[in-house]
Amino acid sequence: MIILGIGGILGGAASALLRDGKLAAAVEESKLTRSSHGANQGDLPERAISACLDLAGARPEDMDAVAVVRPVPESGFHLKLRARFPNSRIVALEHHLAHAASAYYPSPFDDATVLTLDRAGDFRCGSRWQARGTQMTVESEQYYPDSFGDLYGRVTELLGFKANLDEHKVQWLSVTGDDRFKGLFLEVLCPSEAGPRLNRSFFSTERLKHGGFGSRFYERLGLKDGEPVSESLRPHVAAGIQAAVEEAVIRMADGGRNLCLAGGLGLNALLVSALENRSPYENVFVQPAAGNAGTAIGAVLETWHSVYRQSQRVALDTLCLGPSFSAAEIKQVVENCKLRFRYLLTTDEVIDTAVAQLRENRILAWMHGRMEFGGRALGNRSILASPLDPYSAENLNAYIKHREPFRKFAASVPAELASAFFEVGPNARFLSTVGRVRPEHRDKFAAAILSGDLVRVHAVDRNENPLYWRLLHAAGEASGLPVLYNTSFNLFGEPLVCTPRDAVRSFYSSGIDAMFVGNFFLHK
Predict the structure, then answer these.
(1) pLDDT category, 118, cuts 50, 70, 90?
(2) Of these four, 69, 200, 268, 395, which has the most CB atoms within 10 Å of its CB?
(3) CB 243 within 8 A of CB 148
(4) Model confidence over 390-435: pLDDT tens digits?
(5) Any idea which architecture 148-286 has in CATH?
(6) What's the pTM?
(7) Which of 275, 223, 218, 282 is nearest to 250 (CA)?
(8) What's the whole-number average pLDDT of the chain?
(9) Which fold has domain 2-99+293-307?
(10) Is 417 exposed, middle or buried (0-12, 13-18, 19+ CB in 10 A)?
(11) Cα–Cα dist 311/293, whole Å
């Protein structure tokens, strides 16, 4: 049985494919078009669909079902699908149902509470479900504009960033501020177990920019109506919205044994950490591709269980579900670009060469195997540096990524060694949470610390990414520290690199010192 899922058609378009109960592929359109917009709003993500079919070795006529996450199914859209997939059953799914399915079904739980929280989808901005076995039952729903995600986006715009794009910047900025405005944002949110009910008296219907906040809100910030938020005040405003959302979501989550989370707010690693450490739940699982793209995975899983009544759960063994490239394909690109390279004959030679580069404090681009699904680099499309390099933080942020200093990189460590350096939970496997560095190692990782002892931790499982796991161990054997700094291999505000040509372009447009693309080694 083959099921194709299509999600994020109104933003964050992606496709996923389930073949005989195994997730065979998942790809975002934006990574193939090299645009943050991906497909035009409302269009099929044709490149992502084709990539999933190619990766699964399937044809459009082989599809048993095509599951589409769409707010309002339109007849014209269905005609497009029928023409593209003539033999398939067409299944239309609600946005938050797909979010919930994407979180619960890949989780390790047989029963759980499921929360979906985002800006808006199907006119909803959140839902709460109870799940058991292969059944999910909705308990409550939240409707726009009473939206955590919308308020967070408004604050993002207020602070000078782009709403629906830069919310992650507000998250990381928040760790540098205090909670002086937490009470204000709790007043705005009016949180309860049923969810937020935004207090509209803090907004102006006449102000279309800067988040649409009104005079009452500016007065509480100590500003004149419409006055820009100063650089010194921005971290505290960010900290206020972050702390208030954390408290409100914990209140909404109520209590239980197992919690699953999806929707755009699931990408907020500080929120996930708060749920792990301060909510009544014993166990928390977040869908690592929690945004709209992840609904493509939810679509195939919901169809598998609810339409075809399959009881076998589908494990999320890896997020490396995108395209990979052969040596011949890579060679064609580097030769076409007239580049000098060295082909490393064995995996041992790849590892040894990379370790030698790291010991010289050189920053590496590392592209191997299948591209990751979601926005986080998990060791297949990464930029790597040694924590022992005293200039790694400055070089990574200022001269390569050209981003704000409060946006720290992750520390990748073999999963079985993570507890020796950090306190972190199972969601660190997909970089979905934050951990704490142990006091005796704080000085070693000072460059990656967000605030206090908080650090982004990536616990690398041997079975999931054996090559990256080997590199970490080899680096540890050479230096005594089996940890590497890891940030995503992308520039210019683009998504993760996908193809060898994407990698070459980013490498030669940045201050990265050396690059491994499969067994091909290039350096400057």
Answers:
(1) very high
(2) 69
(3) no
(4) 888 888 887 888 888 899 999 999 999 999 999 999 999 999 999 9
(5) 2-Layer Sandwich (3.30)
(6) 0.95
(7) 275
(8) 94
(9) Nucleotidyltransferase; domain 5 (3.30.420)
(10) middle
(11) 25
